[in-house]
Description:
- By secondary structure, the chain is of the alpha/beta class.
- It has one domain (30-37, 56-227): Protocatechuate 4,5-dioxygenase, Chain B (3-Layer(aba) Sandwich), CATH 3.40.830.
- The chain has eight helices and twelve strands.
- The strands form two sheets. Strands 1, 2, 3, 6, 7, 8, 9, 10, 11 and 12 form a ten-stranded mixed beta sheet that branches. A two-stranded antiparallel sheet has the order 4-5.
- Strand 4 and strand 5 form a beta hairpin.
- Helix 5 packs across helix 7.
- The radius of gyration is 16 Å and the shape is globular.
Amino acid sequence: MKTYGWYPDNMEKLDDMLAGFIHRKKKNVNGIIVPHAGYFFSGEVAGKAYSFLEGEKAIVFGPTHYVGFHGLASLASIKTPFGKIKIKKNDMEKLEYEHSIENQIPFLQKLGFNEIFPIVVGEITNEEARNIARNISKEEGKFVFSTDLSHFLEYEKAVEEDKKTIEIIKNLDFNRIDEINACGKHASMILMHLCKLKNWKPELVEYKNSGDITGKKDSVVGYASFYF
Length: 228
């Protein structure tokens, strides 16, 4: 089991941390967009969106960080302090690890989800994102899209950049896709096409950056959560 310090590796401590992040709210949502940094940094932002999520199956998209490739891949197995989670059978190439996906699993396990379809997103074109969205729209379950926003900018510049990315996602502004400043840009493209296809609208839940957490504002990472 790899966690690399993203969250506690002790089940009780992890459970207590998640209980502090998730405060259940009744709302019929189709999915969420959440960050994937260490829980100390972005767990609260993610938890506010997870508070709306209910279900048993989830399709989880996240960007690749460790292996460069074109297209999509999946994960062979995922184990957290809560145990292994069932992965939907698929024919994709399998990666050993991707934290943008795996950091979402404890949240989902805490909420009672028991099966996921993990999809790691490499380089794709806008047309490929549209086709992926069309194919994935037939899947049963809740959608989770994982992305952090801008990286290593000064605080005020990060807020400016992140506000722009948030507006592009909220407005499904395909003309400005190239302006998205996020590690999950390609996953976000799939999200936007999926929302357009299904007539869903992303709504911002929370925005912060690491400077709001640590007080260090010379170089920060942005985090936002949405539901749709």
